[in-house]
Amino acid sequence: MRAYDIIQAKRDGKELNREQIQYLVLGYTAGKIPDYQMAAFCMAVYFRGMSLQETTYLTEAMAESGEQLDLLKFGSKTVDKHSTGGVGDKTTLIVAPIVASLGGIVAKMSGRALGYTGGTVDKLESISGYRTQMSKEDFLAQVGRIGIAVVGQNGNLVPADKKIYALRDVTATVESIPLIASSIMSKKLAAGSHHIVLDVKVGSGAFMKTLAEAQKLADLMIQIGKACGRKVSAVLTNMDVPLGNAIGNNIEVQEAVAVLKGESCPDLREISIILSTEMLCLCHGWTPKKSRQEVEKVLKTGVALEKFKQWIDAQGGKTDWIDCPEMVEKSKIVYEVNADKEGWLTAMNAQKIGQTAVVLGAGRERKEDSIDFTAGVFLKKKIGEYIKKGETIALLYTSREKLAEEAKEIFLDSLEWGNQQPKENPLLLDVMRMEE
Length: 436
Ligand code: URA
Hints:
Layout lengths: L2 H9 L6 H12 L5 H14 L3 H12 L15 E5 L8 H10 L4 E5 L9 H6 L10 H11 L1 E5 L6 H11 L7 H15 L3 E8 L8 H17 L3 E8 L7 E3 L1 H11 L5 H19 L3 H13 L2 H12 L18 E6 L4 E6 L1 H11 L15 E4 L6 E2 L4 E7 L5 H10 L1 E4 L9 E6 L3
Parallel strand pairs: 1-4, 2-3, 4-5
Antiparallel strand pairs: 5-13, 6-9, 7-11, 8-10, 8-12, 9-11
């Protein structure tokens, strides 16, 4: 077999078989196939697409390229959640303890911030002492003990995706539905959970800019899951505006805790309830109505908050700040962004607000950059509100005094103003479940 012939076949729109796809993926991961051939293959896929069968072969070959976690000893209650990436998306911090407090087994590997979107691992590392790296034995033991553990992705999990994703990033081939689907699903398969809920974000702050594109991606991932013996549902949610009011690291953790305490943050609370509901429908076979009732109950009674404390403590994190938010470290500098005009806020571009947070120090511009856990943006106003001149729209937290002006400009550029109240955009755009 030759890589050249496989690239040529894809270029000409032919369907590839399992052996050809495995040859390419495993050869590339082992360094036997060079970047330029893999790049040509990705571009051929970008233009020609892939059938469901080919995408499934690609996903399986990638999942099998490294270590795979075996969660079978936990029975049929293992359940994972994956977000395609958004701004202010801290739902894992809320959903994982809710589901674990209701008997779901959450053995989760999360990612770091990517571009203007945040990452759960960075948020968790903003909690003093929290360990995002554990041995496999300790990770599985904790899951067995308390039903929940969340760590960073193990270095040897899906090495093929690490290499291929980095290549796609520099060859303009990220935006290909079969390549995105196989990248996400290979990581979910290797992470071992039997049930998977996908939160596919749609809008200005997401990869998928339209609902139709997001439905296509979600449907493909559900079909791949089915072909690989997993149960998958997808929830399609709005990412035109950031989720919640906090965008950063320790401020997002505090906002997640506020939701677990029952304090107000309606959009974040609602999306977290929807995701938890779907996860419990899958792993317990409950109806959506019963699931939602149970989720609301553990939020109201504080049971989910207790599970959160137990989880953070088990991974070495301090927990005293949870009941004493004033103990949380604050940024050195706080800037107010005040309105220089009056009117309705009609749009808040999530991508630009994510970029504002990165400039303030909350994300990475380069892989090797370190993060300022106290940096970020706190939205005092959101889309649909009427704002008077001089009112504070947002607080910018940073220690980078010199960059605050630049960040403020990007933030102001994210806003659109109008004379009329905009119509409300739904938070939940679609739920797609697997047919039995
Ligand atoms: N997230 C991933 O993990 N992979 C992609 O290709 C896109 C988003």
